[in-house]
Specification:
The chain is mainly beta and about 250 residues long. The protein has two helices and 14 strands, in the order H-H-E-E-E-E-E-E-E-E-E-E-E-E-E-E. The N terminus is likely disordered.
Amino acid sequence: MKKFSNVLIFVLCITLSFGLGSTRVLASSEEGLSTQEQTYLNELLEVDPNFEVAGEIVSVTKTTDALDIADTNYNVDDGMIRPFGAIGSANMSIYIVVSRVNDPGWDTFNISATATWKTVPFFRMQDGFAISWGGNFALESSYAQASYKSMGITSGKTQRITDAPNSGVGYSVEASHYYGQALDWVRINARISQTDRTGKANVSAAYCHRTASIGGIGISFSGESRTISFSVTGASDSMSNSTSFTY
């Protein structure tokens, strides 16, 4: 009996040591990802441990630098052109995860874009978040989620305001909870598909943070690249990210 107890304790110690020192086991959907992509995915899971992906992941990207878009995007207010500023990477990150769904006869993909605030923004009004895609893909479905600091996911804080079935989809999001807590992250999940063919498509995501403006926010998509544009009355800052996938 004493010998059995010693063996049991030894096995238990090995099991505990392995559990404490091991890393997260890759799901089958994550096989084939680069080390960098896996790092980004792990970061995203730290932001939202309940994040799930349907299908085989084909791309994971993250905005790592502030994108200076002041020379190319403008806001028109009473005839005055005012440049958008860039949200710094110290304040926000945007992750894009693209996964392929098994759908015989069709090229079907899930796009998940997540904008995460690393700081608490001073201005907390109604912001905008959108994704777009190239190719001949059509939107099958989409939804958005918003999570607030110390409150978690809260319903009723996002609203779809733009729906271009073959280009993109955009949502407004409240940057503050009912009780004043700041937005932690917002995510758009979209499912797109086209008849089975071969090619390459680009995916973009962009966030618009209103800093001193009135009224609502508009979102549009233009050109073959499906460039995302925001329309606000006043001042705002933006961040974007993009990736591509083959089909």
